[in-house]
């Protein structure tokens, strides 16, 4: 309860800031629907960048297990750099999805409230139907995005384990021990890329619906 009392003012402050932001944007002609479309497109770009980063990490891992003499410390540093970049990419994807949820909730709440302002029953029913359809598409998209987000975690865990193991055992035996991990990491990254491709394709359809 004590933690809730501490967090509640922060959450209310954040909500107030978001409300003020949306109001300010509407005054210059940018509505929540426009913001939502923009954020979905930004999430697409973030996922595409994450795909490339995880592919790069896999290439580095492939080079690692083929190591045959040289500066092993430099190889470790390159491997760690790829892991850190993947972690940052994953955090950016999560932040983008969270920002989508924030504006979508505000949009749908506003849309639902404004249905009560109609005096024309036919127009109200048509708007309510469009709201239901848009929410259904959005919920499906969000589920797909969260699935792709979740699929990054086993890859990050494996990359971290492998990086730590290499750090603590900078020798040829460590390379041999990691060779057996490659196929598993490759499989997880391929699954991740597939999940992100599905999310990206679904995002394009959703944005097209918003812009109709």
UniProtKB/TrEMBL annotation:
Coiled-coil residue spans: 33-60
Pfam families linked to this entry: DUF2959
Keywords: Coiled coil, Signal
Signal peptide interval: 1-20
Gene3D superfamilies per record: 1.20.5.300
Family matches, as InterPro entries: DUF2959
Domain of life per record: Bacteria
Protein name as catalogued: DUF2959 domain-containing protein
Organism for this UniProt entry: Rheinheimera baltica
Lineage: Bacteria, Pseudomonadati, Pseudomonadota, Gammaproteobacteria, Chromatiales
């Amino acid at each position: 309860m004590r933690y809730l009392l501490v967090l509640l003012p922060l959450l209310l402050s954040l909500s107030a800031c978001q409300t003020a932001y949306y109001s300010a944007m509407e005054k210059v002609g940018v509505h929540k629907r426009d913001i939502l479309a923009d954020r979905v497109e930004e999430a697409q770009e973030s996922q595409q960048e994450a795909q490339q980063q995880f592919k790069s990490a896999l290439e580095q891992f492939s080079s690692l297990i083929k190591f045959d003499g040289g500066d092993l410390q430099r190889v470790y540093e390159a491997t760690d750099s790829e892991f850190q970049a993947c972690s940052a990419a994953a955090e950016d994807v999560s932040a983008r999805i969270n920002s989508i949820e924030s504006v979508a909730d505000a949009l749908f709440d506003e849309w639902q409230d404004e249905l009560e302002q109609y005096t024309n029953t036919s127009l109200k029913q048509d708007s309510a139907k469009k709201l239901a359809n848009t929410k259904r598409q959005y919920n499906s998209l969000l589920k797909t995005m969260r699935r792709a987000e979740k699929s990054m975690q086993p890859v990050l865990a494996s990359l971290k384990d492998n990086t730590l193991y290499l750090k603590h055992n900078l020798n040829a035996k460590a390379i041999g021990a990691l060779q057996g991990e490659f196929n598993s990491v490759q499989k997880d990254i391929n699954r991740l890329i597939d999940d992100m491709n599905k999310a990206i394709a679904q995002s394009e359809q959703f944005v097209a619906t918003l812009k109709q």
